Amino acid sequence: MVTEIRPSTTELERAVWDALATIEDPELPIAVTDLGVIRDVSIDGGRVHVTMVPTFSACPAIGVMREDIRRRLGALPGVDEVAVELSFAEPWTMARMSERGRQRLNHHGLSVPSPGVEGAVKCPFCGSTNTSMENPFGPTLCRAIYYCLDCKNPIERFRPPAD
Question: Is the separation of the CB atoms in 73 and 50 below 8 Å?
Answer without folding.
Answer: yes
